[in-house]
Specification:
Layout: H1 13-21, H2 44-67, E1 75-76, E2 82-83, H3 85-99, E3 101-103, E4 110-112, E5 121-122, E6 128-129, H4 135-147, E7 151-153, E8 158-160, H5 166-180, H6 208-216, H7 221-236, E9 240-245, E10 248-254, H8 264-269, E11 271-278, E12 282-287, H9 296-299, H10 304-312, E13 331-334, H11 343-353
Antiparallel strand pairs: 1-2, 3-4, 4-8, 5-6, 7-8, 9-10, 10-11, 11-12, 12-13
Helix pairs in contact: 1-2, 2-5, 3-4, 3-5, 6-7
Length: about 350
């Protein structure tokens, strides 16, 4: 079979659930100040506790998917990635449960006023349009949420979470942030709520190093320290670190030139290296080496396998007649304990590229 057309093997739901679970912030402060938009929802301390309660619920959510993924049926997209519509449906349902509701007087229930994605509509021609989430999809999501501890009363007009009612406050504020405070909701970003992106609630900006530390937290401590030291070394040297979250999570480092502040797309095109966490490759360091001819003598001192990687370079695998392995991102090195053996060579390499 031609290397361009190898059959796609669906990613198991357990793998995807673990990938998403690792994106949940491991360390959430109890002291951050909140944006004024949340002042009328609940006392600040209740909100912060509610966020942590929702984060803990997400651990249960993904652990149950890892152990029992019967609820999610895969769909293979054109790029070969595995998509599970279940994630989009349950995210949108949770967001609407939080956004289109009010807290009961004792904050032990969410009282639902509407759920647009679960409601049929009439178009301008008088034709009935089915809900965005099918009835079978709604039933599947409600069954799963019930297994995770939610209680639904009436025709989903009241929601409770008896084991920790504070979760409802967290769901409420995170849903408002999801609907009103992030630039766009589309594609993989539909799963924003499932990452417990509490930083949208904060009145102050978050240091990108803190976000990087959160993404790296599943790695061995010495690997985390290596990546953090690279971040500090090259941001101190003048590179700018920017985060993107698309099909993967990326922290990329670029040297900005000129007075005009470039777009994220332009910065990404100028990147020197990036840390990436993806479903396909896990944790990786990508280097886009462009000056190797200027320090060939230094490269000659590197271990042979690293010399070979640099010699092979990077670019579109398919244009080179190979199956796509993401080489357009750069020269990939797994971000695991094996990288520690070549840590000094990595630093020497990046020092010449920065």
């Amino acid at each position: 079979m031609n290397a361009h057309h190898e059959p796609t093997t669906p990613k198991p739901i357990a793998d995807i659930a673990m990938y998403k679970r690792n994106l949940i912030p491991a360390n959430i402060s109890h002291k951050y100040a909140l944006k004024p938009i949340f002042a009328s929802i609940a006392p600040e301390n209740d909100i912060r506790n509610g966020v942590i309660a929702f984060r803990n619920f997400l651990y249960l959510f993904f652990d149950r998917l890892i152990s029992d993924g019967q609820f999610a049926k895969p769909k293979i997209m054109q790029n070969g990635m595995t998509d599970y519509p279940f994630f989009h449906s349950i995210t949108n349902m949770l967001v609407e449960m939080g956004y289109y509701s009010r807290l009961s007087q004792n904050s032990n229930s969410l009282l639902i006023t509407e759920m647009p994605s679960c409601t049929a509509t009439i178009d301008n021609n008088g034709k009935k349009k089915p809900p965005k989430i099918s009835l079978s999809g709604q039933k599947e999501c409600l069954q799963f949420l019930t297994l995770c501890g939610f209680v639904f009363i009436g025709n989903v007009t009241e929601i409770q979470y008896p084991s920790n009612p504070q979760l409802l406050v967290g769901l409420k504020v995170l849903s408002i942030a999801d609907m009103e405070l992030r630039p766009e909701r589309r594609g993989w970003n539909d799963n924003n709520l499932l990452r417990c992106d509490y930083r949208l609630l904060k009145s102050d900006d978050t240091d990108i190093l803190d976000i990087l530390k959160d993404i790296l937290h599943p790695l061995p401590q010495n690997v985390q320290e290596f990546a953090i030291n690279l971040h500090k070394r090259y941001t101190n040297a003048g590179l700018t670190c920017t985060q993107t979250i698309l099909a993967d999570t990326s922290f990329f480092y670029a040297k900005l030139t000129g007075r005009k502040y470039p777009s994220v797309r332009d910065m990404y095109a100028q990147r020197v290296f990036e840390f990436s966490y993806s479903l396909k490759f896990g944790y990786s360091l990508f280097v886009r080496a462009k000056k190797t001819e200027k320090y060939a003598d230094i490269i000659a001192t590197f271990p042979q396998f690293l010399q070979d990687k640099i010699t092979n370079g990077y670019g579109c695998d398919r244009k080179r007649g190979e199956r796509c392995q993401g080489s357009c991102q750069g020269i990939r090195i797994p971000l695991d304990e094996t990288i520690l053996d070549i840590s000094n060579h990595i630093i020497a390499w990046l020092d010449y590229e920065k």
